[in-house]
Design brief:
Radius of gyration: 15 Å
Largest sheet: none
Structural class: mainly alpha
Strand content: under 5%
Number of strands: 0
Order of helices and strands: HHHH
Low-confidence stretches: none
Number of helices: 4
Helix content: over 70%
Distance between the termini: 13 Å
């Protein structure tokens, strides 16, 4: 149960970081924002190449690393949880 909760918290962190990236994309233009929102690989490309922020490294680490760790922790927590 602990791993699942930690995974959910990391997933919330990742979503918050992605929201910052999406806001930046929509401020740039509506077309860019829609592409970042609906084309899965383009949001990663946009985040690394065109996203400009003072804390770019921290935001990218939270977005991508948080998502990867959340998937790993939630999968491990679900697998290791005892059966009822």
């Amino acid at each position: 149960m602990f791993l699942i909760v930690c995974g959910l918290l990391l997933q919330l962190l990742a979503v918050a970081c992605w929201v910052v990236i999406f806001v930046h994309a929509f401020q740039r233009s509506l077309g860019t924002g829609v592409m970042v929102m609906f084309i899965p690989i383009y949001n990663v490309v946009y985040a690394f190449t065109q996203f400009e922020h003072r804390r770019k490294g921290v935001i990218l680490a939270g977005a991508i690393g948080g998502l990867v760790l959340a998937v790993i922790l939630r999968t491990a927590g679900t697998t290791l949880e005892p059966a009822p």
